Input
Amino acid sequence: MAQSTLHFQEEPPAGPSLTVYDQEHMTLYLRLLDAERDGADWRDVVKVLFDLDPEVDPERCRHIHAAHLARAQWMSEHGYRELIGKNPLT
Output
C-alpha cells in the first residue's frame, strides 16, 4: 500500500541527533531497511513507499531513496539510542 499521505522532504535532516522528522518517519525508515535487507529494487521501493514514479524523474527518485535509506541506516546504528534513553557516546 502506498503512503501517499506521507509528507516527506527531498532529504531527511542530517545531524547527530534524532529529529521530529525522524520520529514522524520511523515506519518509513523501518520499511526502507526491510526493503534493503530483502534486496528490493529501489524503483519499486519509491513507488510503494513514496508514491513516486521513477520513470518520470529517476534522478530525483533515486536521490530521495538514497537519502532516506542513509538516514534509516543512521537511525539503526546510532539514532535509536536516543529513543531508548542511552547516551549516544557511550
